[in-house]
Amino acid sequence: MHNIVDTLFQALWDNYLEVTPSAVKVHELLGSTQQNDVINDHIALRTFNHEKVGLEKLAAHFLAVGYKECGEYHFEAKKLYAKHYEHTDPTKPKVFISELLVEKCSQALQSVINKMVDEIDEAAITADNFLYSGTHWQVSHDTYQALLAESEYAAWMAAWGYRANHFTVSINYLSNFTTITDVNQNLKDAGFELNSAGGEVKGSPEVLLEQSSTLADHHSVLFSDGEFKIPSCFYEFALRYAKPDGELYTGFVAASADKIFESTNAR
């Protein structure tokens, strides 16, 4: 089972690197040359609350390899709902899956999303590679821009489809850094731009989780009307604190996650 989990995350990682080349530089900056201490805290995936491809359809791939549902989150302003999953082996990465509540969006957006989902072959959804299969449709750059005006989340999905939206360095395991501010400063000194929505550090020791993230790389997408560079994926950094029982907090903080979503905003 563990090998299956590792193989899945390796495939997700390889797919993520294709559009997030800066992640390699992050590893070089933060990792120790003596030990492989860049440990993945969690990944995040996006989808639509459409019956065909809802959150549960993505979660099924993880439940099948030993994950269990652990928490749910609501993002009213962004019209999103999410759950997170943890493996029975706590050393395996956590998984955060969100979905856009399509019925809360405009008729125009609903029409575009429904058309995209219609293009997906039912068999593809249960295929082993679905979580990193990208887009199953093609949209124009004009359509992307129209979606972007209403929902950055919908536009990102239209352009990138099914893939890890981000990976997350666990600061708890780094040997060269102990605080999130040191990690952030090191990234900025190396020329990385950080997501400053709600402050560079989201969360606090009081809520048992501190998070920060780079702004998404820009990568080319071949739309139906040409090739354009747009925000792709980003890298997150998480420092977890111990609960009163001494165990590290393993959940997520909705107020912080709300701002992390903005790492893929256009700039």
Automatic annotation (TrEMBL):
GO molecular function: dioxygenase activity
Keywords: Dioxygenase, Iron, Oxidoreductase
InterPro entries: HGLS (IPR009770)
Segments traversing the membrane: none
Catalytic activity, EC: 1.13.11.93
EC category: oxidoreductase
Classification via Gene3D superfamilies: 3.10.180.50
One Pfam match: HGLS
Cofactor: Fe(2+)
Tagged with keyword Signal: no
Superkingdom of source: Bacteria
Coiled-coil blocks: none
Family: Belongs to the 2-oxoadipate dioxygenase/decarboxylase family.
Protein's UniProt name: 2-oxoadipate dioxygenase/decarboxylase
Organism: Pseudoalteromonas citrea
